[in-house]
Amino acid sequence: MRPEKGGVIRRTAPASRRTFASRAVTMSSVWTTTRSMTVGLSDSTLDGTGHSEKSVRLLGVERLPAEPQRPRRDDHAAVAEHPDERPHAPESQLCEDVVAQPGNRDNRREQAGKREPVGAVRAVCHTRSYRRSHLNPPVRDALSRGRRDYQPSSKSSCMYLHRLPDGTDDLFWRYVQYAFQPDAGPELEESDRPDPPHTRYGLYPDTSVTADDEPVTICSSYDFSMWARDSRVSAGGLSTVATPPEHRRNGYVEVMLRKLCRRYRETDTPVSVLWPFKHAFYAQFGWATASRRLKWETEPSTLRSAAATGGTWERVGRDAWESLDAIHEAATGTDDLSLDRSEAWWRTRQLRSFDTDPYVYRWRDADGDARAWLAYTIDGDWGDRTLYVRSYDAADTEAFRHLLGFLTDHDSQVGEVQLETATDSPLHAMVDDPDDLSPKLTTGPMIRFVDVPAALEALSYPDGVDATVEVGIRDPLLDSVAGRYRLAVADGAATVERRGDDPTGDAVASIGAFSQLAVGYRGASDLDATDDLDADRGTVETLAAVFPATTTYLREGF
């Protein structure tokens, strides 16, 4: 059977009032697009076939022409609308809705091939595509919507976020091991993972839980402060999001993220950051790239032309963290997105590793001042070993040259050195032959604001900038964030007022793009050029003055 005009196949069959009542129940659980939608008519108003006008209109039907129609062999088919009309989303995240099929199988067989009586009605059914992860697709008419295999109302919509109870360590690591190390097998390996203080959460169907209850998905959250625009901002680091396979494709992660972000707001934590397993996954929930980094791979001898010698290197342990922290502060200062490291962070994250603890060395100059340090591991077989620099700081360029000299001294042990730097690193210009370097630009962590006024008012602003602008922010995850905001900047500070729920204003952007703008990862002109910011030229220039672009570098793993 070929579709009629518009790519829609229509079914036509006689129906009674009782049949339509049963069809209304069936169709209430699926998404249908109706050609006519009128409510409020009296049920006592009957048409020529004995159906009430209200029932007919609610089902989205249209009356056939007066002349009989040709019999249809396959009268229960449906085709998808034009793909260009579907909501924008990655194809891998789109799925078609189940199309309503009124009547039971026996009735359809009896009706097949029959001529349609004059004045009969027919239901017009479309398929709809939508993003798999959206629990509440936008309602376009009065009919209830859903999918047979995806029913958030009975599953993910009635879930509760709890801290994992005491005695759930094995459960937590079982979830994490399956998500990130499935090749290890079902036997739980003893974990030697060094962790700074953090909180573990689980999503449960019950309001109260015990250690015997199993969550449908879990995550960890680290509380820390990071520098942004010369100001210290409270942030929540999201990590170890893991869902067992039996609970996937039910929207649980989205529910957990929404509830966790609300908890961040309640605890005065206006920013969330994470290291994604896949950027596109978290981008659909409002996170956006916060920084990029350069990964360098080279032979140790390549660095010799940039190296310096002198001073002394000494191996240190975890108790030297205060000395290393002083070097870190001298090196990074208030660099955008650098962390304000605590003692626990130094001891458990910087100076320890998951499997093999790193070697830690500190450099002192001729005056005895500590000015550089690094932590590294060596991996591989003899003749094919690689030195991985896990973390380092150099107070200035001279100290960085001495750090490079330390690496070149390993040329008899390793064939390759790997380290990461910010995107503005001068390493290319420091060596004699930059062609021997192999830098790779990679995306880093992601960021999003969960409380726009609190985040913006925590930042510092350029001197001499006096501006007021209204910004509309779209947010796919948090209705409490989406809306219109008035931003007023003067004397290096900002005041922010929420003006409404509609994401309209002098400039409009998604929460991810606006977060990038605010922390300096992308400038207003850049966002405007890629259509991630909708504003006129004057507003773009104003936002560029308020939020100048800068080099961001969040190097911490969590």
UniProtKB/TrEMBL annotation:
<feature type="region of interest" description="Disordered">
    <location>
        <begin position="60"/>
        <end position="94"/>
    </location>
</feature>
<dbReference type="Pfam" id="PF13530">
    <property type="entry name" value="SCP2_2"/>
</dbReference>
<feature type="region of interest" description="Disordered">
    <location>
        <begin position="134"/>
        <end position="154"/>
    </location>
</feature>
<dbReference type="GO" id="GO:0030649">
    <property type="term" value="P:aminoglycoside antibiotic catabolic process"/>
</dbReference>
<dbReference type="InterPro" id="IPR051554">
    <property type="entry name" value="Acetyltransferase_Eis"/>
</dbReference>
<dbReference type="InterPro" id="IPR025559">
    <property type="entry name" value="Eis_dom"/>
</dbReference>
<dbReference type="Pfam" id="PF17668">
    <property type="entry name" value="Acetyltransf_17"/>
</dbReference>
<feature type="region of interest" description="Disordered">
    <location>
        <begin position="184"/>
        <end position="207"/>
    </location>
</feature>
<dbReference type="Pfam" id="PF13527">
    <property type="entry name" value="Acetyltransf_9"/>
</dbReference>
<feature type="domain" description="Eis-like acetyltransferase">
    <location>
        <begin position="338"/>
        <end position="448"/>
    </location>
</feature>
<dbReference type="InterPro" id="IPR016181">
    <property type="entry name" value="Acyl_CoA_acyltransferase"/>
</dbReference>
<feature type="domain" description="Enhanced intracellular survival protein">
    <location>
        <begin position="452"/>
        <end position="554"/>
    </location>
</feature>
<feature type="compositionally biased region" description="Basic and acidic residues">
    <location>
        <begin position="69"/>
        <end position="89"/>
    </location>
</feature>
<dbReference type="InterPro" id="IPR041380">
    <property type="entry name" value="Acetyltransf_17"/>
</dbReference>
<protein>
    <submittedName>
        <fullName>GNAT family N-acetyltransferase</fullName>
    </submittedName>
</protein>
<dbReference type="GO" id="GO:0034069">
    <property type="term" value="F:aminoglycoside N-acetyltransferase activity"/>
</dbReference>
<dbReference type="InterPro" id="IPR036527">
    <property type="entry name" value="SCP2_sterol-bd_dom_sf"/>
</dbReference>
